[in-house]
Amino acid sequence: TYGRADYATKAIEEDRAAIENDPTSDYLNAGLAELYAKTGRIRDAVLEAQDILKRDGNNLEARRLLGRIYLRSLGDMQANNQSQEVLKLAIEQYEQIVKLDPRSVEDHLLLGRLYRINNELLKAESEFKIAVGLQPNSEDAVTTLAILYNEEGDSSRALQVLNAIPEQSRTAKLYSTLGYTYEQGKEYGKAVDAYRHAVELDKDNLDYVRGLAQNLLNDGQTDAALEQYKLIADSDPSDAQTYMRIAEIYRRNGKFDQAQDALKKASAIVPDSLELQYNIAVIYDSQGKYDEAIQILTNLLAKSEHGDGQYEQSDQNNRAVFLERLGTVYREANKPQLAVDTFRKMLTLGDDNAIRGYQEIIETYRDSRNWQMATNMADEAAKKFPNDRGLQLIAASQQADMGNPGPAVERVKAMLKDNNDDRDVYIALAQMYSRLKQWKEAEESVNKALALSTKQDDKDYATFVAGSIYERQKKYDLAEEEFRKVIAGDPKNAMALNYLGYMLADRGTRLDESLGYIRRAIALDPNNGAYLDSLGWAYYKMGNYDLAEENLRRASERIGNDPTVQDHLAQLYNKTGRLKLATTHWERALEEWNRTVPAEVDTDDVAKVQKELESAKVKLAQQNAAAATKH
């Protein structure tokens, strides 16, 4: 009726005439106020509704009209003082509305959302709970309450609300919220199941497919995730994020060319994206193209830098991500001081980023065998963040490595709380006992950690630690059993693949199988020095000395301060008659062992190398004497 301006004007005039005959009629006044609102005369509508409420504060229609007008105004405004005033007016109206109509689910939800915008979370929760109580199977009420709990970091209460809905009554939106909630709690397998249900109920909703793909990726199901991301890309070729996720999967699988192709497609859509540039840098890093990665990350930091040094939390987090990756690249490129200097810049970017910065600095010093500086930084971090258990565990581990194991172990035991959070403490104890060669205590601790591991990733890691403890005791069959369990659950677990492959190669056992495991690890992380050493050593055991030398030399370029790598090179050169090179590398191995802490040293290995070195020197002297005689 009011599609044309002249009709609307005529209707308003008719209403006014009627009101002149019956000025106290709330019905007529409310109708006029509604007309004003519909024709964009908002101020007149507000004044008319306010006049009605002066006469009758319980007029529900007038309050609803005012509430709707304020809501509409909020949506059109920027966040400022004026919008705060309108928010307050909207809340006042809906507080009255729910009093007048306490059984309206929609109005309780609206009021709750307004409270949430105003950061009155307890009041919001109360309104959402009332809405759920009024209509327990309401998709809108249940998901809104669950989302609030998730925002508060309470995924367990969110799950309680969502799982109260019988399965036969669950909608696609509800399953999607359930999937998101499981994701927040890092229960990725359950998140996958929930998102699958959402997709089955609404195949055309790409957000549900995105949730499914992301959680398949989170759960380590990279092939299945890739399949879903390809479906999304086919349906929405303008979705740059999907191409970035596809690139991430290809990178994780060691398919770097395909990863770069996916990023090219993303670049055509969002050429200036910082995230895109970051992902390109990550691929360069994975390929060992450190200079290229450093250039991109340095540029990203320059672009995101503020002259005054003041950053919003999101900007701080972005800078921390760039700094952490740049520091890692420097460390991988054997530039430890540049790595430390870079990680130090994270210490001013908020507590969470500072904690990660300290962890990276300590790792860098350990990696370069600067044990005293690693200990100094661990102590500094533990004092600065006394409530961060991760840093306390690192500091205790350093204390044990530096020759004070008794107090260190007691320090860690004091962190046990007799609940599920003890898992990480038992892992730390198992690793400390293993380094101290206290095997019985190490096995007991890792078994307790396994018993507390509910998530698959946690189980896999605890099982891996158990395998390493058995291997260090030379219980090879038990170690192999544990590593095989990890690989069965996660066929792309590079650490387990490498460890099992190396263990078999070192004993000269099932060498073809050993080589297969190591190659799989290398495909996933082609520039990992430890994996390159394993590959070279497997080739050595197979008698393929050219390939052995190629890979052992590459390993030495990456982790030259590892005495085992130096020993392997020495044995290769000794085997191929290059005694001078052999003695050089055995001497380097002994130097590196002398620089390290006792926990890193196997005395049997040191004795064996000393014997090999002496024998090689004797042979070399004999060769030199024979050569001198000829001349």
Could you walk me through the main structural features you see in this protein, from its secondary elements to its overall organization?
The structure is a single chain. By secondary structure, the protein is an all-alpha fold. It has a domain at 560-631: Serine Threonine Protein Phosphatase 5, Tetratricopeptide repeat. The protein contains 34 helices and no strands. The protein has helices at 5-21, 26-38, 42-55, 60-76, 81-100, 105-117, 121-134, 139-151, 155-163, 172-184, 188-201, 206-218, 222-235, 240-252, 256-269, 274-286, 290-303, 313-332, 336-344, 351-367, 371-384, 389-401, 405-413, 422-435, 439-452, 456-472, 476-489, 494-506, 511-524, 529-541, 545-559, 563-575, 579-595, 603-630. Helix 8 packs parallel to helix 10 and helix 10 (172-184) packs parallel to helix 12 (206-218). The relative contact order is 0.03. Mean pLDDT is 89; it is low at 25-30.
Largest sheet: none
Radius of gyration: 33 Å
The CATH superfamily of the domain at 560-631 bears the name Tetratricopeptide repeat domain
Name the shape in a single word: elongated
What is the CA–CA distance across the termini?
A: 118 Å
Number of helices: 34
Stretches where pLDDT is under 50 for at least 5 consecutive residues are 25-30
Average of the residue pLDDT scores: 89
Q: How much of the residues is beta strand, in percent?
A: under 5%
CATH architectural arrangement of the domain at 560-631: Alpha Horseshoe
Instruction: Please give the oligomerization state of what you see.
Output: single chain
| Percent helix range | over 70%
